[in-house]
Amino acid sequence: MGVVFRKELLDTSRDRRTWFGMVIMPLLLVPLLLLAMPTVMERQTEKVRETTARVAVVGAEHHPELVAQLGQNPALTLVESSDPEADLAARKVHAIVYLPEGLRQAVANEVPAEIRIAFDASDQLSSSAQQRVHAALAAYSSELVAGRLAARGLDPTILHPFHWTVENLAPPQRMIGFALGLIMPMMLAMWATLGGLYAAIDAAAGEKERGTLEPLLSAPPSRLTLVLGKYLAVVLTSVIASAISLLGMVLAFLVRPDALLGPGHTGTARLGEVLPPTVVGVIFLVALGLAGVFSALQLAVSLYARSFKEAQTYLSPLSFVVVFPAIFTQFMTPDQVPAWFFFVPILNSLMVFKEVLMGLVNPEHILITLGVSLVGVRVALGFAVASFQREHVLFRV
Amino acid sequence: MIKVSSLVKHFGTLRAVDGVSFTAEPGEVFGLLGENGAGKTTTLRMLSTVLRPTSGTASVNGHDLVTAPEEVRRQIGVVSSEPGVYDRLTPREHLYYFGELHDLPRPEIARRAEELFGLLGMQDIADRRAGHLSRGMKQKVALARALITDPPVLLMDEPTAGLDVTSARVVEEFIIQARATGKTVIFSSHIMSQVEKLCNRVAVIHRGRIVALGTVAELKSRSMQERFEDVFVRLVGEGS
């Protein structure tokens, strides 16, 4: 078994596709998602914030004071437009304010009036302009209300019985755990299940395609020995891919720890607090369980295929098996999920990854997840071994 | 020595091999001659234990195919029409891999590898990845791989298919040499001249059955034909 295992590793280590899937992708994608995406989003928000919103007012003559007030707002620039709706579609104007006829009189008579704001929700700048106009109108409205109250001898503060401040008491490591819990479970699960995909395809369908399967089957080791040697090599490849995605996460943390803290947080956290040895150990075991099940399945399916390409066609949809549950559980917190989650393969691993990254080590959840994986390994490996015994699978034409 | 007795292999309703019997002695090249689909490859695959016979028995150096397949595999070296090499491994690594699969100690593999590289003129390519080699060179890798354990029995299924004249000659010379060193060689082909040149005895196989068995000279005299090709055509025509 050791001979087959070593040969498969040597062969795999010389395959560029494996390097790309096992090392380069997890090493780059994780820091990219953890660092670059928030940075890009931050920049985009900043860009929107810095851009002055161009606003066209229709019916300005119905309340010149209000228009003047809007014109003084530094976040808004009032523009003339003969066809505001066409200009909005052409993104020359970010928002349109329609002032109804008799607005000034209605305000003076303290009769409620309706002002319409039009914008283009598919344009980020337009959405921002709408919010700014809304805020400016709300501020002007408050001013009017304050004036009316004062005219009646009332203190405007009676409108605000409370004032409040907001404080985030979550320690930095929990904030980081929360940020990691959104992205990392999918990354870890994806590479634990798919990191060895090319190795599995190469070890079975690849043997068929190259014509190496027959000489191999004519060698003394039993088919069980051959399958186990190949299987262990695929499992190791998957676990390494998963470990490299974890390394990518560590690199992202070391480069910019503050990026993971979220906006407005000023705390600091050490790597050892975010990723203590227990957490690394649990991640390793759960990833190993996932790799154990999927490597066997991939080997069996790959052996059924006639060629590398056919195996790829059969196995590519496997990524959805991980991605869908990962998206489904992305915003769930571990304490909200029902207990049966931990009996469902993949779902359970994703939730345990999330739990431990958030600093919650629940032995019961971990043991159930590992137990389910063990049963999965037994079934999937049995399937792979049986496939290697079937002549119509080995010599399918 | 190989003893085959009433070997049968069914694939669903197809009787690919239908009661084949023969013996092949050490120091003999035994030819399996037949058209494509006649049952040559299936017979060889059963002898290499890759396929399990539906019925019948066969033994290789006294080891039964079904009850002692692992022992059978220790006796044989297999070469087929497809070189079947790992593109990312070098010829030397191929020999180490297959040597170790046969539990050969590494120093022994190293010694045998050098010997085979010399014999097959492969010294220059021994450490080059197989993916960069020509088909003829790849077939030499397959030959060396089959010989790394110096097996007493060689099963060769159209080993010169797709090779140029020079490479095919290397394979032929190699078979002659194997015979001289006392190996039992089963050699399947549909090339008459090759069979005539290399085989001590020939079994003409058609639709899974042996329709004639003997030396080339015997088969010629039996069917009163001078050219072996005519002998074959006649036999196959009678068998259908």
Shape field of chain A: elongated
Average pLDDT for all residues of chain B: 91
Count of DSSP-assigned helices of chain B: 9
Number of beta strands of chain B: 10
User: What is the helical fraction of chain A, as a range of percent?
Assistant: 55-70%
What does this structure look like?
The complex is a heterodimer of chains A (397) and B (240). Chain A is mainly α. Chain A folds into 2 domains: 2-35 and 170-394, no CATH class; 49-159, abc type-2 transporter like fold (3-Layer(aba) Sandwich), CATH 3.40.1710. Helix content of chain A is 66%, strand content 5%. Chain A has helices at residues 2-13, 16-50, 64-72, 84-89, 103-108, 124-151, 172-194, 197-203, 205-210, 213-217, 223-255, 271-274, 277-304, 308-315, 318-329, 347-357, 363-389, 391-394; strands at residues 53-58, 76-79, 95-98, 116-119. In chain A, strand 1 (53-58), helix 3 (64-72) and strand 2 form a beta-alpha-beta unit. In chain A, helix 7 runs antiparallel to helix 15 (318-329) and helix 8 runs antiparallel to helix 11. Chain A is elongated. The two termini of chain A are 28 Å apart. The mean pLDDT of chain A is 88. In chain B, helix 3 crosses helix 4, helix 3 runs parallel beside helix 5 (135-147) and helix 8 packs across helix 9. Chain B is globular and about 50 Å long. Chain B has a 6-stranded mixed β-sheet with strand order 6-7-8-3-9-10, sandwiched between helices. Chain B has a 4-stranded antiparallel β-sheet with strand order 2-1-4-5, covered by helices on one side. The mean pLDDT of chain B is 91. Chain B contains 9 helices and 10 strands. Chain B is an alpha/beta fold. The longest helix of chain B is centred in the C-terminal third of the chain and has 16 residues, at 165-180. Classes of the chains: A mainly alpha (397), B alpha/beta (240). At the A-B interface, helix 1, helix 10 and helix 18 of A face helix 2, strand 6, helix 3 and helix 5 of B.
